[in-house]
């Protein structure tokens, strides 16, 4: 099948969403944990995590829409703190359920049955069930006017990784950790390692 620009615009809404949401390939699947200034915990599923750089250690997420309540966006902007937690097959249904539109102030941790965990000096909650966890500090918010979204850039200020999942060179064994991936907004996948290649030179 071929889709011209006109054809894409003319597609039925749900069909277009499925097509465009999955055409970008497999994506990182993470739970973003935040806490409002009032102390309410929030947990949401994200697949837009991108690596920005290793030195300094920066990553970004796309948060939509541009509404700053006691939700992921509002909590990150007001507290500057959030956590990023990998998802495993053992709690994929619970992770998916966090994407439901719960009322502000309602804790998705409680609603779906995941456990908040804290480290001193990091206000945002981690997901205890998650094998690989990071804490981020907001360093830049980029407003994308095109579709009212935000690119939230964070500095990685803490990482927790199981000892037996880190190689001598620092490379993380995601299969061993149980990390899964996703396609679109409803399809979850496990992976298998194929090959690691040496640094490419001309
Ligand atoms: C697989 C999957 C991936 C998602 N990825 C994103 C994402 O990258 N950015 C986003 O804003 N919402 C994403 N969502 C939707 C959010 O999880 C959902 O809107 C959530 O309720 C937002 O919570 P909040 O309003 O408490 O911030 C995704 C949902 C699913 C099921």
Protein model, in words:
The chain is α+β, with helices and mostly antiparallel strands. The protein has a single domain, classed as Pnp Oxidase, Chain A (Roll), CATH 2.30.110.10. It has helices spanning 5-10, 13-23, 72-79, 92-97, 108-112, 174-177, and strands spanning 27-28, 30-35, 41-46, 50-54, 57-63, 81-86, 116-119, 122-127, 133-144, 149-160, 181-183, 187-189. The strands form 3 sheets. A 7-stranded antiparallel beta sheet has the order 3-2-6-9-10-5-4. It starts with a helix and ends in a 13-residue tail after the last strand. Flavin mononucleotide is lined by residues 42, 44-48, 62-64, 71-72, 96, 99, 101, 182, 185. Flavin mononucleotide (FMN) is lined by residues 42, 44-48, 62-64, 71-72, 96, 99, 101, 182, 185.
Protein traits:
202 residues, alpha+beta, Pnp Oxidase, Chain A, 7-stranded antiparallel sheet, 3-stranded antiparallel sheet, 20% helix, globular, binds flavin mononucleotide
Q: What is the architecture at the second tier of CATH? A: Roll
> At the first level of CATH, what is the class?
Mainly Beta
CA-CA gap between termini: 36 Å
Largest sheet: 7 strands, antiparallel
CATH level 3 topology: Pnp Oxidase, Chain A
Low-confidence stretches: none
The beta-strand count equals 12
pLDDT averaged over residues: 97
Write down the secondary-structure element order: HHEEEEEHEHHEEEEHEE
The order of strands across the largest sheet is 3-2-6-9-10-5-4
- CATH homology superfamily name: Electron Transport, Fmn-binding Protein, Chain A
Tell me the number of helical segments per DSSP (H or I, 4 or more residues long): 6
Q: What is the alpha-carbon Rg in Å?
A: 18 Å
How much helicity do the residues have? 10-25%
Our estimate of the beta-strand percent is 35-45%
State the secondary-structure class.
alpha+beta
What number of structural domains do the residues give? 1
